[in-house]
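Allow me, if you will, to draw on your knowledge of protein folds for a short while. A protein sequence and the structure tokens that stand for its backbone fold form the material at issue. I would ask you to consider whether the tokens describe a fold that such a sequence might reasonably adopt. Thank you for your consideration; the sequence and its tokens are set out here:
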Amino acid sequence: NIPVREEEGRRIRKAFVAAPGKTLISADYSQIELVVFAHLSDDPELKKAFTEGADIHRRTAALILGKTEDEVSASERRAAKTINFGVIYGMGAFRLAQELGIPRSEAQRFIDAYFQRYAGVAAFIRNTIEAARREGFVRTILGRRRPIRSIDSRNANERQGAERVAVNTPIQGSAADIMKLAMLRVDAVLRERFPDARLLLQVHDELIIEAPESTARETAAAVETAMADAYRLSIPLRVGVEIAATWGDMH
């Protein structure tokens, strides 16, 4: 995992170069954890945003601030992005206030407004924690189980940590399930249709493929389709593809 947002990381990535006559293809899922979150929570507003292809962070900011999406500023969008991902990881008002540099009371108002607008999310979190407490484990979308042993701990910090794990695991774990299915599908497509291409590596929600320059576009299109069809959710999985000579030239 080489950070792409840092100059040193970008320079290191440029060292990953395709072989002569070949090029690299990057295919990555767009916001897969939030897409899985929308599917699992079955929240109509969240699902609508993804189905419409909206900017989910701008849409969230507009909903919780009572503005149109065009009225949302860059800083308001960044705040909404922090909230969108923070909810997955169980971020509370104290941590949100620290992240955004705002008073805790204002952070709490943001969180309250979020759950008011996305009522399905609030219900999903509540139901998931209750199920973990009742069964002692949570499941990913493919049925993998993770024990949640401290869910009934008398220690508040341990209990709250277990609750965060209970909510986060079905989301992150299911995204990992989908990526593993995608890798199998992509490998099968390459073997069948593009034997001179090969899957090089997987980094989080991204796959890197090396393919002959002459068939790179066709290969990229086939990989995009294979990943988008890896698992059927109630909202579509979106995949972005790039073609470049080095890994550092992507994104």
